[in-house]
Amino acid sequence: MSTSFQLPEGFLWGASTAAHQIEGMNVNSDFWAHEHSGLLTQRFREVSGDTCDSYHRWPEDMDLLAGFGFTDYRFSIEWARVEPAPGEFSNAEIAHYRRMVEGAIERGLRPLLTLHHFTVPRWFDEQGGWESEEAVELFGRFVEAAAPIFASNVDHICTINEPNMVARFAPVRKAALVRSDWEQSGTAGSDEATTVALIKAHRRAVEVIRRLTPHVKVGWSVAIANYHVVPGGEAKAAEMASDSRDVFVLAADGDDWIGVQAYTRAFVGPAGQLPVPEGAQKTLTGWEYYPQALGESIRTVARLVPETPIIVTENGIAESDDTRRIAYTSGALKGLRDAMVDGIDVRGYYHWSALDNYEWGSFVPTFGLIAVDRKTFVRTPKPSAAWLGAAGQSRSIDLISHDVMSESIV
Ligand code: BGC
Question: 262 C-alpha to center of ligand 1: Å?
Answer without folding.
Answer: 9
